[in-house]
Amino acid sequence: MVEQVKATQEAIDFMSYLREKHNSIMLYQSSGCCDGAVPMCYPVSDFQIGESDILISKIEGTAFYMHKAQYKYWQHTKFIIDVAEGRGATFSLDSVEERHFILKPILV
Length: 108
Hints:
- The protein is α/β, with parallel strands linked by helices.
- It contains 2 helices and 7 strands, in the order E-H-E-E-E-E-H-E-E.
- Helices cover 19% and strands 36% of the residues.
């Protein structure tokens, strides 16, 4: 595990809220188009991790994975998971909430 992602307290609280509603959750950053620009939140049982996925962090028990193709571009970048107002990505658990996860690079 690379440990290059941290989270704001608001993001940690939001993860906790989603875990209460959906039990075990995970975050996934794909390299795809469309909703691939934001971290997606899924129930652990609903998402199949594959050989092309890397565990890059665990935040308060919530695993954060990234597709290898995306990681190739971001491997030297550190990130903060935060929360923004508005609905989330279409297939993400936060899509029905009035806030959603975002990924911010940490500028060094």
